[in-house]
Design goal:
mainly beta, 2 helices, single chain, 495 residues, five-stranded mixed beta sheet
Length: 495
């Protein structure tokens, strides 16, 4: 509802300041009208756009040091507020976000992009005086930690329209979960899941898959179309010690190293095979070292355990070519390309919704390098920008350096490492820690909100009474809910 400024006793910035501004505005307006260049003003106005700028969130974690003492550390992350749209209700004059900002977000100094109808001017009610208003420009920061009144004044200075701006922030960590145990209906599949010595899992649009191996090297591929309540073994012949599997354009890819073949399971369920014919710079005898990492938009990616390289195939896996990495004359991170427990996670950038493939895995130790390089998992990432939407995006694979002085913000090198995408974050889970005997097998979930740069483990709780057995994995179901599978049981987590 529009109100007359004069009927509101010339409601002012600190009282007289807005009135003075109006007088000055009138003088300028008269000057403009008397000039040869006439300025058109309007008596109506409204708020038409409200976008949050860059935001910071702080999380404080409580940990126990090696000496047994309690300690805390704080992790600060920066993210784009534009990923959380603000809605304007013109009927109730309210501005709000339906998707709450990250837990710990600091709203005391926020820069916003605000647009109005007919070039209306924006004022915020002062915090210490309900009758005082301050002019807002696009370079100012404003305290939005409490609901604020925003006033839009028409360009002719005669009318104003008030809105209440209420920015919502999560009041509890978004990684706190409520778990429910769901029995597996099929006894044979339940027993098979419980006897696997190692597992990997992924989810397509229609089904969940688990590739498992027994201690004698036998392999089996299970499929569930009801989110883990029942499982059926996919009727394919898998050689012993079958390598990993990956997802590419909703097609399940299984690497059969002994046969130098890639088995493909289409969304329809049909199974085909592709022979691996050639790998750039390597003889055919080296082809068995290829480990699939995932794919997108017709390209399939893999890593080479011995060659310290990342490869791409654009013909379904028959031929492979070397991809660029962020190696320079001064920095070469190629020795950190993962060789074992390789996971591929496909997400989209928040800025422009481009596909991003992230590889998380562990490096095999080499004698010429110190153990420090292999104590933690290794993460590589690439944005697939085939249409050159953003010139700033990298055209090569980038190593994501895990930062932080405290071990709890890094992802340890764990056997049977399993990583999935969930709720805009990456969640990791694993067995025995190869370089830290103080960590128990499958004792915690790790979460990263910044694409694998920092990890935390103190708030992402596991199901009460969880028993991993010999092997366990974390994945998501077809509805995007987080799922933990281990010892023949399925647990589903919700916020």
């Amino acid at each position: 509802m529009m109100r007359s400024l004069h009927n509101r006793c010339a409601r002012t910035v600190g009282g007289a300041r807005l009135l003075s501004a109006l007088i000055l505005f009138s003088v300028v307006l008269a000057s403009c009208i008397s000039s040869s260049s006439e300025t058109v003003t309007y008596s109506d106005t409204a708020l038409t756009g409200f976008t949050l700028g860059t935001l910071k969130s702080k999380r404080t974690y409580h940990v126990t040091t090696k000496s047994g003492n309690d300690s805390t550390y704080t992790v600060t992350t920066t993210y784009s507020g534009s990923s959380f749209p603000m809605h304007i209700n013109q009927n109730t004059n309210e501005v709000y976000n339906t998707d709450s900002l990250r837990y710990g977000t600091d709203l005391s100094k926020v820069v916003c992009t605000i647009s109005t109808l007919n070039n209306g001017q924006v004022y915020f009610q002062t915090l210490d005086n309900p009758n005082g208003y301050e002019y807002y420009s696009s370079t100012d920061s404003v305290d939005l930690s409490i609901p604020r009144v925003l006033s839009v004044m028409s360009s002719d200075g005669t009318e104003t329209r008030d809105y209440t701006v209420n920015v919502r922030v999560r009041q509890t960590p978004q990684d706190s979960l409520k778990w429910s145990a769901e029995p597996i209906n099929d006894a044979a599949s339940c027993l098979m899941l419980a006897t696997f010595d190692s597992m990997s899992g992924l989810t397509t649009k229609d089904a969940m898959y688990v590739l498992g191996q027994t201690d004698d090297g036998g392999a089996a591929l299970l499929r569930s179309e009801d989110d883990g309540k029942s499982w059926n073994e996919v009727e394919v012949q898998l050689p012993k010690y079958t390598s990993n599997m990956a997802l590419a354009d909703d097609t399940v890819m299984v690497m059969l190293k002994d046969r130098k073949q890639i088995m493909k399971i289409a969304p329809s369920g049909g199974v085909t095979y592709t022979d691996v014919d050639a790998i750039e710079d390597y003889s055919p005898s080296a082809q068995s070292f290829i480990t699939l990492a995932g794919g997108v938009e017709g390209s399939l990616y893999a890593v080479h355990a011995e060659g310290r390289r990342i490869y791409v195939s654009r013909d379904g896996g028959a031929t492979w070519y070397t991809e660029k990495t962020d190696a320079t004359d001064f920095i070469n991170n190629d020795y950190r390309i993962p060789a074992i427990e390789v996971n591929g996670i496909l997400t989209k950038t928040k800025e422009n919704s481009l596909p991003r493939l992230t590889i998380v895995g562990n490096c095999a130790q080499e004698t010429e390098l110190d153990d420090t390089y292999f104590k933690y998992a290794s993460t590589w990432s690439k944005v697939i920008d085939r249409e050159y939407i953003s010139k700033e995006l990298q055209d090569c694979w980038t190593y994501c350096e895990q930062t932080g002085l405290n071990v709890p913000v890094r992802l340890p090198n764990r056997q049977n490492l399993s990583v999935t995408s969930w709720n805009g974050a990456m969640v990791a889970f694993g067995g025995e820690a190869r370089y830290d005997d103080k960590l128990k097998d499958y004792d915690r979930l790790y979460v990263s909100y910044d694409n694998g740069t920092t990890w935390a483990s103190t708030d992402m709780n596991l199901p009460k009474g969880f028993d991993a057995g010999d092997a366990a994995i974390v994945t998501t179901d077809t509805d995007g809910r987080i799922v933990v599978i281990g010892n023949g049981h399925v647990w589903r987590g919700t916020k």
